[in-house]
Each structure stands twice: as structure tokens, then as C-alpha cells.
Amino acid sequence: MIRTIINIDEEKCNGCGLCAEACHEGAIEIIDGKAKLVREHFCDGLGDCLPNCPTGAITFEEREAPAYDEAAVMESRKKKEQAPVNARQTSRLGQWPCQIKLLPVKAPFFDDARLLIAADCTAYAYANMHEDFMKGKITIIGCPKLDEGDYTEKLTAVLTNNDIKSVTIARMEVPCCGGLQRAAENALRNSGKFIPWQVVIVSRDGRILD
């Protein structure tokens, strides 16, 4: 059938995730750093997501699409609500993308943010990473051993172009994580701003080292 449905321009999309949060039907997901309409029959065409898009990447269009399936939307919500508590622990990831290499250097989610710069492995080594460190922060992650290049330039741009309230650097005790800490410290210096910061070191057996 022909009906009104949203269209997402991936060239304009910065992957901030605000549209996915605004979509009460669950029609939008962030995939590979871009918003995508993954369930056309979940999109009611009312556009709750439109005013939340900071880049104007979302518009209406008239095209062939499956009918809005309210029953399927309600069933999906019901399943989420009935999921076992241990299967739906609250994620504290406040934005998408989170990989340093994929991040925009300026985005609404950085405004007045407390920034967590974390090594990839910390979330696996430290079991309570979400509640103890990610909660209330914008989390960005990377691994200097696996990613090509240095993070200093990108992190400097993020700190320079946004109002960051504080920075927490979470790294593993292993030597390769020193590259992430050095990049963050260099970025703090290069930004020319006074931003409170701290370093948290996680041991290989999941303890926080003093």
C-alpha cells in the first residue's frame, strides 16, 4: 500500500541515536553508526522522531510500505516488559556511536557531558562497568593496540568543540592501554581548557587498582 512513512538520509545522519529514543514503536535502530528504519510496519508515520534529529536527516515521504501494525508493536512492547529481570538490566550507554573512530567531533549528546573514555576491555573485565562508571556519562571507547593511528587529534577536537564537564579515563593495567591514557591526557592539554579528570585502572581479574 502507499502511505506516509519516514525516510532517513544516511549522508546527513550523525548516529546520535536521538531518533531511536524518540520512536516509541521501536521502528528505528542505530546500525554501524547510522539510524535505520528496520521495521517499516512499526512506523506509524506520525514522526515523533523528526524534531529530535539535529541534522535534519529525517523527512516524510509517500511510498509503498507495509501497513502500520499496531498489534505487532503492542506485542513487542509486552514481550520486553515481561522479560526476566536478569535479561533486561539497564544499559547506561547514553549515545551511539561509542567507538572513538566513529564519533562526530561535535554532537548534542556532548553538551555539558561528563565524559568516560574507556578501553574496550574494561567493560569485560569489570563486571559493574555500567552502574559504577557509565551511568550519567557519555561513554566513548577504543583500543590503541587494535585501531590504526592515534586518538589524540580526535579527542582534542571533541574536547575543544563541546562543553565537557569532566573526563574519566578507564583503562586496563596492561601496557598497551597506556596509549589511550596518553592520548586523552594530550587532548586535555591541547584543548586549552580546564577540565577535571581522573584515571581509573582495572586489573586483569576485574579489580579497581589504587
| Discrete helix count | 6
Would you tell me which CATH topology of the largest domain applies? Rossmann fold
Structural class estimated from helices and strands? alpha/beta
**Strand order within the widest sheet?**
6-5-7-8-9
Give the integer mean of the pLDDT values: 90
Helix and strand sequence: EHEEEHEHHEHEHEE
Q: Helix fraction? A: 10-25%
Terminal CA distance reads 62 Å
Query: Regarding CATH, which class of the largest domain?
Result: Alpha Beta
Shape: elongated
Q: Main β-sheet, in a few words?
A: 5 strands, mixed
How many independent structural domains?
Answer: 2
β-sheet strand percentage:
15-25%
CATH architecture of the largest domain: 3-Layer(aba) Sandwich
Q: Ranges with pLDDT <50 over ≥5 residues?
A: none
Tell me the total number of β-strands.
9
Radius of gyration: 20 Å
Account of the protein in words:
- The protein has 210 residues and is α/β, with parallel strands linked by helices.
- The chain is 25% helix and 24% strand.
- It is built from 6 helices and 9 strands, in the order E-H-E-E-E-H-E-H-H-E-H-E-H-E-E.
- The mean pLDDT is 90.
Question: What's the layout of helices and strands?
Answer:
Layout: E1 2-8, H1 18-22, E2 28-31, E3 34-37, E4 58-64, H2 70-82, E5 113-119, H3 122-125, H4 129-134, E6 138-142, H5 152-161, E7 164-172, H6 178-191, E8 197-202, E9 208-209
Parallel strand pairs: 5-6, 5-7, 7-8
Antiparallel strand pairs: 1-4, 2-3, 8-9
